[in-house]
Amino acid sequence: MNLSDSQAYAAFRDTMRRFASDKVAPYAAAVDREKRPPIEAFEASLALGLPGLPYPESLGGQDGDMLSQCIMIEELSRVCASTALTVSSCWILMAVMDYGTEAQQREIVPQITRGEARCAWGLTEPKGGSDLMGATTRAVRDGSGWVLDGTKRFITNGGWAEWYLIFARTTEKRFGLFLVHKNDPGVSFGAPERKMGMRGSPTSDVILDAVKLPADRLLGDPERGAEYITQALLRSRLHIASHALGIAAGALEETLRYTGEREQFGKPIARFQMVRSMVADMAIRVESARATLHRAVSLYQAGDPQAKMLASIAKVLCSDAAMAVTTDAVQLHGGYGYLEDYAVERMMRDAKVTQIWEGTNQIQRLMIAKDVYDVPA
Ligand SMILES: Cc1cc2nc3c(=O)[nH]c(=O)nc-3n(C[C@H](O)[C@H](O)[C@H](O)COP(=O)(O)OP(=O)(O)OC[C@H]3O[C@@H](n4cnc5c(N)ncnc54)[C@H](O)[C@@H]3O)c2cc1C
């Protein structure tokens, strides 16, 4: 797919919106209620090649650029944040395209694009997520290969994914990235976490107990994992911002519909000034978050170093928008907003984690401040 002009992006957004409404929305409440992966929507996404969107066509992907990736995530998240997360998790192993050997790419990527393998990454540990460089999972050389020991916590797709990108300490101060398969001896999983939201996305510990890996499971240089993961986090920050933006946009849409239909004092509540003012604020948050996100995406696509700071700003704006807009959406649904029967209840629960994961919003602010100070006024 070559999306080179805005018309093509608009057409792609339309396709994604139709797909979301026909194939994703019908299962959104059920996967949340039943706390199970969105299998039907995931399988339907394969027919459009979405798990392979960013991968090269030569390996079964679609060569979709960052803007198309963000549009897909936003449109799916509007109706089901768990499905958007499940499909976009398949893109974690783009790190193999960046740092892997051709043999690694040829072995792993087609499994993903054909829908035979799902992906996860393990950065966070029981003792911390914010202090990534404090990770204690170890990778020790064993002949030409490696042995991994440690526990990764809160891993999206834990137990459900086939491939895990694991961040592990290889020397006192350096880290490497390793490709661990679900069936590797010594790999096990904790019980599924019982979560506030994102209930259609499994989360669990990934436990590595003397996991022996051959040399070809190391990605790139064993001492440059921190640099690689920083780059991978930049990409995923744009994805996560799009995910939060989609939740906010979906909640706004639900609110427009509901306030137009619900009547009090003999007229639709959409006619009351205070309601209109809240809806205007919701729209301001959604539109300004999207504008910032798209600026970050265009800087990223241009290879501009400012993309890093803008990606953090977009992550904060989009996730804060998701939390504020979904909370107001529940408010504007009155008592019905508090019931599971209305999508905004799920959206508000799903929104919260977007402020927490992929570097909490406090950590993003620390990074933004550092970048602001680094740029001469
Ligand atoms: C549903 C879910 C899915 C997840 N999926 C994954 C995954 O797939 N892979 C993965 O590796 N991780 C995953 N995570 C983990 C997530 O990235 C971490 O929870 C997050 O980075 C925060 O780490 P922590 O929970 O250890 O909190 P902590 O780091 O302990 O932070 C606790 C609080 O202290 C604040 N804080 C910490 N340090 C500072 C500081 N220097 N200045 C100011 N405030 C600070 C934080 O902002 C936060 O509010 C997931 C988490 C959840 C909930």
Automatic annotation (TrEMBL):
<dbReference type="InterPro" id="IPR036250">
    <property type="entry name" value="AcylCo_DH-like_C"/>
</dbReference>
<dbReference type="Pfam" id="PF02771">
    <property type="entry name" value="Acyl-CoA_dh_N"/>
</dbReference>
<dbReference type="InterPro" id="IPR009075">
    <property type="entry name" value="AcylCo_DH/oxidase_C"/>
</dbReference>
<keyword id="KW-0285">Flavoprotein</keyword>
<comment type="similarity">
    <text>Belongs to the acyl-CoA dehydrogenase family.</text>
</comment>
<keyword id="KW-0378">Hydrolase</keyword>
<dbReference type="Pfam" id="PF00441">
    <property type="entry name" value="Acyl-CoA_dh_1"/>
</dbReference>
<dbReference type="InterPro" id="IPR006089">
    <property type="entry name" value="Acyl-CoA_DH_CS"/>
</dbReference>
<dbReference type="InterPro" id="IPR009100">
    <property type="entry name" value="AcylCoA_DH/oxidase_NM_dom_sf"/>
</dbReference>
<dbReference type="GO" id="GO:0050660">
    <property type="term" value="F:flavin adenine dinucleotide binding"/>
</dbReference>
<protein>
    <recommendedName>
        <fullName>3-sulfinopropanoyl-CoA desulfinase</fullName>
        <ecNumber>3.13.1.4</ecNumber>
    </recommendedName>
</protein>
<keyword id="KW-0274">FAD</keyword>
<dbReference type="InterPro" id="IPR006091">
    <property type="entry name" value="Acyl-CoA_Oxase/DH_mid-dom"/>
</dbReference>
<feature type="domain" description="Acyl-CoA dehydrogenase/oxidase N-terminal">
    <location>
        <begin position="10"/>
        <end position="116"/>
    </location>
</feature>
<dbReference type="Pfam" id="PF02770">
    <property type="entry name" value="Acyl-CoA_dh_M"/>
</dbReference>
<dbReference type="InterPro" id="IPR013786">
    <property type="entry name" value="AcylCoA_DH/ox_N"/>
</dbReference>
<dbReference type="InterPro" id="IPR037069">
    <property type="entry name" value="AcylCoA_DH/ox_N_sf"/>
</dbReference>
<dbReference type="InterPro" id="IPR046373">
    <property type="entry name" value="Acyl-CoA_Oxase/DH_mid-dom_sf"/>
</dbReference>
<feature type="domain" description="Acyl-CoA oxidase/dehydrogenase middle">
    <location>
        <begin position="121"/>
        <end position="211"/>
    </location>
</feature>
<dbReference type="GO" id="GO:0016787">
    <property type="term" value="F:hydrolase activity"/>
</dbReference>
<feature type="domain" description="Acyl-CoA dehydrogenase/oxidase C-terminal">
    <location>
        <begin position="224"/>
        <end position="372"/>
    </location>
</feature>
<dbReference type="GO" id="GO:0003995">
    <property type="term" value="F:acyl-CoA dehydrogenase activity"/>
</dbReference>
